Each structure stands twice: as structure tokens, then as C-alpha cells.
Amino acid sequence: MAVRIKNYINGKWINSVSGKTLERRNPANTSEVVTIFPRSDKRDVDTAVKAARTAFEKWSRTPAPKRGHYLFKAAEILEQRKNELGKIVTKEMGKILPEGLGDVQEAIDTCYYFAGEGRRLQGETVPSELANKDAKTVREPIGVFGLITPWNFPIAIPSWKIAPALVCGNTVVFKPSQFTPLCATKFVEIFDEVGLPSGVLNLVHGTGSEIGDEILKHKEVDAISFTGSTATGARIKELCAATGKEAACEMGGKNAIIVMDDANLDLALDGAIWGGFGTSGQRCTAASRLILHEKIFEKFLTKFVSRAKKLKLGNGLQKTTQMGPVVNEEQYIRVLNHIEIGKKERAKLLTGGKPAKTKEKGYFIEPTIFIGKPGMHIEQEEIFGPVVTVLKAKNLEHAIQIANDTKYGLVSSIYTQDVNKSARAEKELKTGLVYINAPTIGAEIHLPFGGIKASGSGHPEAGGRGGAIDTYSSVKVIYRDYSGKLQRAQIDVKYD
Ligand code: NAP
């Protein structure tokens, strides 16, 4: 039976003002309605933003270790509910259960990590160039954050944003994807349970075009953190620039795995299958391009195609399923259209290329492999489905050149056993993350995650130096002069 959910505003679960609703179906079985959720509008956004604004005064003054403690308690509950939540991820979004559980584990790790940040939130203390003067930085919250998230990591990505935003002392208006509203609700329910003060975290369901825009334009929202497509991100950056808001945007990718002739080919094969077809190719980090050294091209490709053909498609809750459906009808049509373009531009189709025949009535597409050429549409555009374009490289330089020749810059990977080649690749690949002897998937939450070029806006997510703490706090510089006289920097300093 479908679950009816509500918005969460100022500590209360409430319907949208209009009372209108939308429904979300299981992508692996489209006759099953999973969730009925509010179709919110401007009025709901306005109430949520006002609640967040009011709550900010007190929350921003709450000691950071105490803010972190709420995250710690949330992590504990997430851990207890991992199985239940993992199944909801699979039902609502379609990824197979081990991946659904991985999604939840990422949120557990993230909440524990940022709970600890409550006791760090470091600034720096440096010497002053003048005597009897201190110089230091402290971190301050930014204000009300609008968080807008996609469907492909429906618990992990909200956790990437909510956990650091809260520990840094911000309050939040959270708009999840309309395709995973139940996952978002289950995550927010936990913060309600741990007693987070009213108004600190607000959840508003609805569509990007109706309420996303309202969040972006609202005068009381200070900053936006968005993860989603490059097209939506570009619009968000424009609107935020016009309204003077900070915008942290993590966007699409066209990631490549390079396999050199000296690579451990079995290892590379496992990586290429997981990178290309894990989550049905619906990861920003999916390896949708496979660049093979010409000496191993035929041999590797034969094995790659044979493995892809054997992948078992179906409902992700079944143990034998290796690949689930794509998320919705729109995505299904979009992926099939990209495949048609590939055929028209005469890329060589080796397997797949059409809807898959399955017992379930869902959005299943066969794992698809093309041999392509640099510059082709299917080699340049993010498809976000189970489609891999294979390219041939003459040598390392050529492979790196092909990998870099895209507007995106999220992730890249190289398989080689030659330490010199791996060293050159890690330096020359133009992406935010580089993997060596591992696929493009597998980021850990205690290092920054973010793309360059059209994949990111330079405000990474997750932990580590240069990660989310920088995105969700501002740095205040404090000079304290206790000399009792006017001291002029650069002028009263004498270097003999
Ligand atoms: P999307 O269509 O851009 O949507 C992302 C979010 O933005 C959704 O909540 C969406 O609302 C909302 N939105 C849409 N139009 C909006 C508007 N005009 N104003 C404000 N918000 C708006 O992306 P998606 O299909 O959900 O996700 C897939 C994309 O995300 C891929 O490109 C993938 O590479 C990228 N991604 C990137 C990362 C990363 O870290 N780099 C991670 C995961 C995914 P709706 O509810 O209406 O959809």
C-alpha cells in the first residue's frame, strides 16, 4: 500500500496549503504506487523559509559540539534502521538492494563524521606582523540554506548536505527529488526523533519547477547547495548570482576508465562492469567511457561485452538481480533517445541498444555497449543510463587526451601496473577525483567530493580539508591589538 507523507515545517508534519498531491511509482513495477506526497507551492516554501529564519538565531548560537550531538544520535538511529531504509531506497529509486544499503551506509558515515566536526570546526591562529597583536580565523554559519537534491542517492546526498549544514550552525529548507520523496521523509523523521529544535530542518516536497525556483528566489534564503544535472545547475548559478546568493553546485559527468596494455585485465574488467552498469549507469561517477589501449582492445572488449550480456536485470529486491531499472519514464525515453543518436552517428553497437524483456513491468534497458569515436554525441554527453562508449587509444598520451576532451571534469580512472604511467595520469587527468586500479565509483566520505569544469562549482561536498565545512561556513578574520597604540600594518613594520 502506498505511504502518504507530509511536509515537515517548523517541527510539524503538515500537508501542503493547496492540499494537492503527487504520486511516486516503483520504477521496477510501475503498477505499484509507493508514495503519495504533497505538491507544495510558493506558500509552503515561504512558511518553511520563515521557520528556518526564526530558528537560525538560536541554532547558530548553540555550541557546535551540541549541534554535532544531534547528528551522532541520528547516525545511531540510521544504523538501527539500515535494512528498512535500504529496502525503501530500492523500492522508490530502483537500485539493487546492496546499493540501497550502501546509500544508507554513506549517510551513517556522513552523520558520524560531521558529528565529530562539531568538536573541531577549526579556524587558524597565525602570528601578526606587529607586536602585541593576535590574528586568527573563526568559522561562522552562513544562514538559511536551500538544499536541492537528485534521486540517484536519495539518502546519501541529502546527508552530505544536511549534516555539514547543521553542524556549521545553518538552518535548512530541503527540497528532495520528486522521484524519491519517501527516502527524504524517512531521513528527516530521524532528526525529528532525536529532538532537533523546531524550524532548524524543514522539508518541502514538490517539483523543481514549482518550488525549486521559489527557494532560489526567496529573499530570506542566504545560500543554495544543489546536486543534479549540469543544465539545472547552470540555471541555478545564474539565478543565485542575480539574487546575491552563494551557490554550491555538484553536477554531471562523462567519466572515463583508461585500461593500459600492462593492466591486470581481470581487475580492469570487474571495474569497467561495475563502473559502467552499477546503479544502471545512473551515477554522476558512472564510467560511461572506456578507453582501451589498442594492444588489448579486441581481447578486453570481447570479455567486456560477454560480461555485460550476462547481467541479470530485474527488481532490485530480488537477490539474483544485478541491475535494476532506470528511474522513471522520462529517463527511460531520454536514454533510449541517446542510444538512437548513437546508432545514427554510426557508432558500432556491440550489445543492447533497446528496452530489456523482463518479468516485471518497469523501465528496464539492456546494458548497451558502442564502439565510438572522440567527439561523437554518445562520447560527449552524459547519458545517465546503462550505456558505455568504448574508444581506442594509441598510447598513454592519447588516452589522457581523449579522457580530458570533454566539458565535464568529475572522475577518471586508469588501470596500469606501471607506477610511472599512473603518476603521469594522476597529474594530467583533468577531473576532481582520479582512481588508480579502481573504477570511477567508490568515493569515501572523509575526503572532499566535487568536480571541476562543467561538473562542479568549486564547493565540494563531504569531509576533509577543502570539503563541505568550507562550503557550509564562512570564515571570519579577527585581529586583536592589545598594544594600546595605533599600529599600521605594512607601514609601521620595518624589515632591516
Ligand atoms: P535534475 O533534473 O537537475 O534535478 C535535481 C534537483 O533539482 C531535483 O530536486 C529537481 O527537482 C530540482 N530542479 C529541477 N529543476 C529545477 C529548477 N528549475 N529550480 C530548482 N530546482 C530544480 O537532476 P536529476 O535528474 O535529479 O539527477 C541526475 C543528475 O544529477 C545527473 O546529471 C548527475 O550526474 C547529477 N548528479 C551529480 C552528482 C555530483 O555530486 N556531481 C551526484 C549525483 C547526481 P525535481 O524534483 O522536479 O526533479
From TrEMBL:
Give the keywords, sorted: Oxidoreductase
**Gene3D superfamilies reported in the protein's UniProt record:** Aldehyde Dehydrogenase, Chain A, domain 1, Aldehyde Dehydrogenase, Chain A, domain 2
InterPro entries for this protein: Ald_DH/histidinol_DH, Ald_DH_C, Ald_DH_CS_CYS, Ald_DH_N, Aldehyde_DH_dom
Record-linked Pfam families: Aldedh (PF00171)
Where's the Aldehyde dehydrogenase domain?
A: 13-477
Q: Which GO terms describe its molecular function?
A: oxidoreductase activity, acting on the aldehyde or oxo group of donors, NAD or NADP as acceptor
Q: How does it assemble?
A: Homotetramer.
Cited PANTHER family: ALDEHYDE DEHYDROGENASE-RELATED (PTHR11699)
Q: Which family does it belong to?
A: Belongs to the aldehyde dehydrogenase family.
Q: What is this protein called in UniProt?
A: Aldehyde dehydrogenase family protein
